[in-house]
Amino acid sequence: MTITLKKPIERFPKMIVFDLDYTLWSEWIDCTLGPPYSYSKATNSVLNKQGEELCLFEHTTKVITFIKQSLPDTKIGIASRTHTPEWARKALGLFRIPELDGITLLEAIDYMEIYPSSKIKHFKALSEKSNIACEEMLFFDDESRNREVSKLGVHFIHVNSRTGITPTQFENALQAFEKNAGPEKKLNSWTWFNKKNKNEDAAEMYEKAANTFKLAQRWKEAGDAYLKAAELYKTSQESKFECSKAYENASKCLKRVDAQAAIDALNKAIL
């Protein structure tokens, strides 16, 4: 199935930017054991020697294909704060886009800012390198805190971390961009979101700490940090999936040092 617009659009973004984790693919790559990777043509997925599989969301290649085929003047960008940028680049270089004669996802991307930092810094760099104003960019990301880029004029779209970008959401985002872009656009029209949830912000900080412990192979500390993140996510009905993933990641870490604690965490991960 290809993406077709149900309504005509005359003005498109000059750059469409994507986050990676839980936006284009279905895992947080920092929380895997990393390369060396191999590619599975049968499932269009990336696997490591430990058997972990990194998969694109269902509609990722369709969205990229639509941009490449239907929006020739629109660039594709990546803005990711991952702590393992080389892992991300390796994965991008392995994933294929069947609808575009099997070119890699990396080959389809025009600009990339992949490193731990604020998305504000990412977008300033994207704008400087491309000579495209932030007001002409559309950004898809699963983390609500990253809507801070709206301060730069970027059009922010929050992605469901369970499904990634859907065709309907993609078309609605293009429609909204056309409606809100231009000299008459008011930045406030893109800031009708609720205030940041303090518990969600704290949970994300615990996840960052857990990732740091994980990279250092300090499995107990990593597991405990993920558990704290899960408890914070649990306070919000809208963060059930994030809560479950945090418990799952805690279990993966704790199974190396405490089998029963790992089992307990995994049981809590069941939604």
Automatic annotation (TrEMBL):
GO terms for molecular function: acid phosphatase activity. Pfam families: Acid_PPase (PF12689), SNAP (PF14938). SUPFAM superfamilies: HAD-like, TPR-like. It comes from the Eukaryota. InterPro entries: HAD-like_sf, HAD_sf, HAD_SF_ppase_IIIC, MDP_1_eu_arc, TPR-like_helical_dom_sf. This is Magnesium-dependent phosphatase 1. It comes from Rhizopus azygosporus.
